[in-house]
Amino acid sequence: MAQILDPLPPEQSGKILCCYINATSKIQVARISNIPNWYFERVVFPGQRLVFEAPRKGQLEIHTGMMASAILSDKIPCDRLMLDEPSVYEFDTDSSDEKDLINTRSIVQQINTKIGDTTKPLQILGLASVD
Description:
The chain is an all-beta fold. Helix content is 0%, strand content 31%. The chain has a domain at 15-80. The chain has strands at residues 15-21, 28-32, 40-44, 49-55, 59-66, 69-77. It has a 4-stranded antiparallel β-sheet with strand order 3-2-5-6, with no helix packed on it. The chain has a two-stranded antiparallel sheet with strand order 1-4. It is elongated. The chain starts with 14 loop residues before the first strand and ends in a 54-residue tail after the last strand. It comes from Nostoc flagelliforme CCNUN1.
C-alpha cells in the first residue's frame, strides 16, 4: 500500500501516489534522495510492485544489485510514476440510478462462437483378441 513508514516532511506539499515495478531478474534498491529531511529507500525484488507516496518533484533512483555492489541504473521523475486515482464520482453510492459504476467493465472477454452444429460423432474402434 502507500508509503507510511517515513512520512513526508510537513513543508512538502503536493504528494502523489506512485508505482514502480521491477521488471528485471535482479534485486533493486529504490531510493529518493533529492528531498531534504526525508529518507526513502526500499528493496524491490524481481517482479515486485512498489507503491509509495512521494513529492511531485521527487526523483526515484534505481540501483541494480550486483555481486557485493549496486549500480545506479536509472533515475525516474516521480510524476512519471504517478498512479491515476479514481474520481469520487466512480465510488458515489448515493446514485439515484442505483447503477453499479464499479462493475461496469467485463473482466472476462466474450468468446466468439460459431452458430450451428459443430459437434461430430466420436468413432470408437473395437479391439479383437486373436489366438
